[in-house]
Amino acid sequence: MVEFGRLITAMVTPFNDEGSIHWEETSRLIDYLIDVQQTDTLVIAGTTGESPTLTDAEKVQLFEFVVKHAAGRAKIIAGTGSNSTHHSIQLTREAEKAGVDGVLLVVPYYNKPNQEGMYQHFSAIAKATSLPVMLYNVPGRTGACLSVETTLRLAAIDNIVATKECASIEQVAQISGAAPEGFKVYSGDDSSVLPALAVGGYGIVSVAGHIVGASMKEMIHAYVSGDVSKAASINHRLLPVFKGLFEAPHPVPNPVAVKYALALRGYSVGTVRLPLVPPTEQEKEFIRQLIGTIS
């Protein structure tokens, strides 16, 4: 069984001035996330990586490039989920050929299948690959919620090994308490990682890990080592960053804020692709002040 660790960073996709993938900066970003921010695993072409605007060809190139550059220093999870089962199977098979360590499969969006449809969707993809599968339940984006019962049903499939849960802490608790041994529940909300750990969660699939990953790793280690007071203190210090990257100074779509924050750290990851737009001057100033508090 692959161990993805407790800190997983959903990596942004660097773009150059022409809007194409910036490969040199992708290399720098991988090194920074592994060596400085201490991430255990990278998610490539997830929501934070702007997967809706990446072509399949770009995704496969990214999978191959990141696997080669990471060179075993971190595990690599490919975002291969979509609202088409057939398409997801095809992309998952390409990711497996590229040498990734696992895949992240989001709940089908827009067509809003019922629970049986979700079960059949995920089980079909899992059966089409030997890779470990992490489910991704994010009702706020997909318009559909994978239930606790369906998650547990899917957890009985050998290579479905984890879920990224964004519905509620209650669902984290219910799944963690009833899942088979070895099935791991990750929070998909940075501000909820400590509460998630407290109810049986295993770790975080993070956006803020780009900026405060090393501190998040310290917080998680403190909690699992029994130093709850230290973990709570670190969490209190990081909460403004967790919130600010999504509210700069009002709600902004991910990864608009974190890309600008990385630019402030000297990483030329470029802007976002339409239909996302760059931060306003007011939002930039907010992010500058936010990052200044942790520099």
Automatic annotation (TrEMBL):
Binding-site list for pyruvate: T48, V205
InterPro entries named among the record's database cross-references: Aldolase_TIM, DapA, DapA-like
Cell compartment(s), UniProt: Cytoplasm
Xref: Pfam families: DHDPS
Protein name: 4-hydroxy-tetrahydrodipicolinate synthase
Cytoplasm recorded as keyword: yes
Catalysis performed (reactions): L-aspartate 4-semialdehyde + pyruvate = (2S,4S)-4-hydroxy-2,3,4,5-tetrahydrodipicolinate + H2O + H(+)
Protein's pathway: Amino-acid biosynthesis; L-lysine biosynthesis via DAP pathway; (S)-tetrahydrodipicolinate from L-aspartate: step 3/4
Function, as annotated: Catalyzes the condensation of (S)-aspartate-beta-semialdehyde [(S)-ASA] and pyruvate to 4-hydroxy-tetrahydrodipicolinate (HTPA).
Active-site residues, Swiss-Prot/TrEMBL: Y136 (proton donor/acceptor), K164 (schiff-base intermediate with substrate)
PANTHER family: 4-HYDROXY-2-OXOGLUTARATE ALDOLASE, MITOCHONDRIAL, DIHYDRODIPICOLINATE SYNTHASE
Top-rank taxon, per record: Bacteria
Family designation: Belongs to the DapA family.
Site note Part of a proton relay during catalysis, residues: T47, Y110
EC number: 4.3.3.7
Subunit structure: Homotetramer; dimer of dimers.
Record keywords: Amino-acid biosynthesis, Cytoplasm, Diaminopimelate biosynthesis, Lyase, Lysine biosynthesis, Schiff base
Any one GO MF annotation of this record: 4-hydroxy-tetrahydrodipicolinate synthase activity
